Amino acid sequence: MQTTICPAQIKDLPAILKIVNHNILHSTAVYDYDPKTLPEMEAWFAEKQEAKWPVIVAVQENEVMGYATYGTFRTKAGYRFTVEHSVYVSENHNGKGIGKLLLIELIALAKAGGFHTMIGGIDADNTGSIEFHKKFGFEDTGTIKQAGYKFERWLDVKFMQLILK
């Protein structure tokens, strides 16, 4: 079956919402506690579109299997060439190469957009995501200890960086 990577559309938001909420409720990939609502996702999507930040999806037979995006790393002008990214795959499609397809496209978009650096903030215990990013040339640039708190425990955040140019 053919997997297509394309810009997300408003019709994709319920599937993206399902992926987001699964990660909120069952993982430390997202440090939120409460599930998002469709109106919240619509507002998030509108903000991304207004700011011209990409939101892409992996689609197979009209099913959204994952999504990826990037946006502002820090708001000060000196950071304008650095973006922070996210890649999430549906629980039913983990380990099938969907994340790879999404990240390849996201990196290409960031390069085409003239960005210099891509950052990923990853839970330090998420060895799968850390190894995944290393395969694309991301380097471990440091860990902020006990930066987050979820599931009754402190969480460390590892920053991974890819120099795009």
UniProtKB/TrEMBL annotation:
One of its GO terms (molecular function) is acyltransferase activity, transferring groups other than amino-acyl groups. Residues 3-161 form the N-acetyltransferase domain. Keywords: Acyltransferase, Transferase. It catalyses: L-methionine sulfone + acetyl-CoA = N-acetyl-L-methionine sulfone + CoA + H(+); L-methionine sulfoximine + acetyl-CoA = N-acetyl-L-methionine sulfoximine + CoA + H(+). InterPro entries: Acyl_CoA_acyltransferase, GNAT_dom. This is N-acetyltransferase family protein.
